[in-house]
Structures are given as C-alpha cells and as structure tokens.
Amino acid sequence: MKSLLWLYFFLGWATPAGSGHAVYVSVVEFKQTTGQEAELAVKVFADDLEDAIYRASDERYDLRGGECAGQAVTAYLQDHLQIKVNGSPVAYTFVSCEHNDMSVWYTFSCQVPSVWQTVHIRADYLMELFPTQTNVVSIAASGSKKMLRLSRETPNARLEL
C-alpha cells in the first residue's frame, strides 16, 4: 500500500484542490481475502468518472460532492473492468466508496476460486475519454503479488500466479 501512495505522489496524483490534474492514472487492487472471497478496490479521479458515466448513460452524478452512485459506477465498470480467474469471469458487487479529496476509492466484493493459477484482466475504463489514461493494477493471491500497468495500447493482461 505504501508503494501505491508513493506512486500517487510521483505521478502527480496529489494536486492542489481545484487545480485539475495533468496525469490520467487510476489504481486497481484485486486481492484474495479468504478462500473463495476477494476484494476489488478501484481509485479514480471523481471528475473523470463522472464524465465517463455521463458519456455512457446520459446520467449525471456528483461524485465530488460525496455521492457514491454505486449502481451507476458498478454498471460502468462492469463494461470496462473485467477479470477472469482460472478462465472464469469474476462478478463483483458494490460494497462502499470513500472520498479522498479529488479521488474516490470504490470497493467491491467478489467470489473467486480458492486457488488462483491465472488472472486475466481488461481495464480500459476512462480510456474512451483520455488517450493517455493509465490504470495501475495490483493482484495479490495464492501467496503472490504482481503489479502491471494497462494503457490504451495494452488494456489487457494475463498473469500466471
């Protein structure tokens, strides 16, 4: 987690309130918590996610003002953040959101196989708005932790654990 915090500051994640941001980056953490349960956490800039949801659904949400919009966020992410463990799709359910200045952490619960051999992830959310969007992914399961960077040129990855 400390390495991810360092990454936020290094890439310009922490910018003065109201100044916007010049770097388009988000974080995905996918980790096995117990046996057949996993947690999926996604940190994004609230204004970017507002714009993406509006573009996809014509619905406006005020994510910067404290609204979670869990159902709308889940629907958008299910189209743009897809995970397979051992070849089986992972469904996720909204749990909570936590606002943090200009960004929001969304947390989801997942049912997964107890042993992970491979993980395939597609994370192309926000890339329809920002060609330079980067989604940094951390996957932890079966005693292994791997990190990768997904971009518009490479929105998919397959990992062996």
Number of helices: 3
Compute the separation of the termini in Å.
20 Å
Number of self-contained structural domains? 1
Could you give the order of the helices and strands? HEEHHEEEEEEEE
The quaternary structure here is: single chain
Class by alpha and beta content? alpha+beta
Shape: globular
Reading side by side through the largest sheet, how are the strands ordered?
Answer: 5-6-2-1-8-9
Overview of this protein structure:
There is one protein chain. By secondary structure, this protein is of the alpha+beta class. The protein has one domain. Helix content is 20%, strand content 44%. It is built from 3 helices and 10 strands; from the N terminus they run αββααββββββββ. It has helices at residues 2-10, 46-57, 70-80, and strands at residues 25-34, 37-45, 81-85, 88-89, 92-100, 103-111, 118-123, 134-141, 144-151, 156-160. The protein has a 6-stranded mixed sheet. A 4-stranded antiparallel sheet has the order 4-3-7-10. A hairpin with a 2-residue loop joins strand 5 and strand 6 (103-111). The radius of gyration is 15 Å and the shape is globular. It starts with a helix and ends with a strand.
Question: What's a quick, concise take on this entry?
Answer:
By secondary structure, the chain is α+β, with helices and mostly antiparallel strands.
Helices and strands in order:
Layout: H1 2-10, E1 25-34, E2 37-45, H2 46-57, H3 70-80, E3 81-85, E4 88-89, E5 92-100, E6 103-111, E7 118-123, E8 134-141, E9 144-151, E10 156-160
Parallel strand pairs: 1-8
Antiparallel strand pairs: 1-2, 2-6, 3-4, 3-7, 5-6, 7-10, 8-9
